[in-house]
Amino acid sequence: MMHTDFIPYGRQSISEEDIAAVVKSLRSDFLTQGPCVSEFEHALCTKVGARYGVAANSATSALHLACLALGVGAGDRVWTSPNTFIASANCARYCGAEVDFVDIDPRTYNMCADKLAEKLQAAKLTGTLPKVVIPVHFAGQSCDMAAIHTLSKAYGFRIIEDASHAIGAKYQGEYVGNGQCSDICVFSFHPVKIITSAEGGMAVTNDEHLAEHMRTHASQGTTKSPDELTQMPGDWYYEQHTLGFNYRMTELQAALGLSQLSRLDDFIEGRHQQFAHYEALLKGFSITLPYQADDSDSALHLYPILLPEHNRAARKGVFDSLRQAGVGTQVHYIPVHLQPYYQALGFKQGDFPMAEDYYARTLSLPLFADLTLAQQERVALILKHALIANRVMSA
Ligand SMILES: *Cc1c(COP(=O)(O)O)cnc(C)c1O
To answer: For 32-56, how does the pLDDT look when each residue is reduced to its tens digit (9 = 90+)?
Structure first.
């Protein structure tokens, strides 16, 4: 890992303007609960075409708030993709709900809408329909939201998009987050994501009540709103109406997020150029390159390659060779249902074969804002050697 010119799989890009924005907020009157947070919420809503934004200290918190706002609780069921970060499932567990998964489409690696339809049909017969489905826009490419939205009307479930990878992505020509096909959409600003606020996330929605519910629960369940108070003894007064959390984003985070948001278009364009470079550089390699659906304009958060089925045993060797040669490859994702925590809840190997097969064969190549063409050429060369050394490809 300590290679001098190690190329990480993902890395934030921090400009002088980003730094100046954070310093400015640091010198201001407010380090938290000041103007930057609502400015960031408004700017992001304007960008993606949503009405209300609720900033949080992480996407994990925002997902929890979203589940609570949709009334998820004990006895409810929430379904998500097994090919995701654990937070997409954990948010439902925080609420006491049961989690289940829908296997992935082998081309996009997203939740498969056909498998969702089949599973819903079966669940209807046994009275075990989900209250909420959380599609995850894997690697920045939108799920088939039109199909999932249609199913939500037929079976009566709500939708939270986990768009942690997909800020700046478009689906059918419009930004992910505009709420056309979901109730709430959540973005992450962790440093490996498309834009960063160090830690941070945001839930966007077009529903005023959902937004208010999330905002209240992000701030200890309290309100100062005159029309909600039971009495008004003076200006010091607030009331706690429900049990909430401290999930607030700080001003420093929001200042960074806001500055990064102004660079979003550049980041996305840069990722598309890098994607095209990889396509050219990896042409003829015996691996599957990421597929891009016609109706989706991905934010390209990740560049996952897939080894051939008969070479699945070589994945560890290729991974180790890349790391040893200074290429920071990663594996996205270990299927969530195979985590010991979820196995203890009854899930097992074989439950979601597509996600498991994909996991066994995938590697993510470096993809981040400041990745240079020279670095991509080096990644391609080192990958070629690694594939040859591990007999995936002949010399
Ligand atoms: C990163 C990520 C999260 C969690 O984001 P945090 O901001 O780190 O809490 C949730 N879901 C997915 C798919 C992610 O990639």
So the answer is: 999 999 999 999 999 999 999 999 9
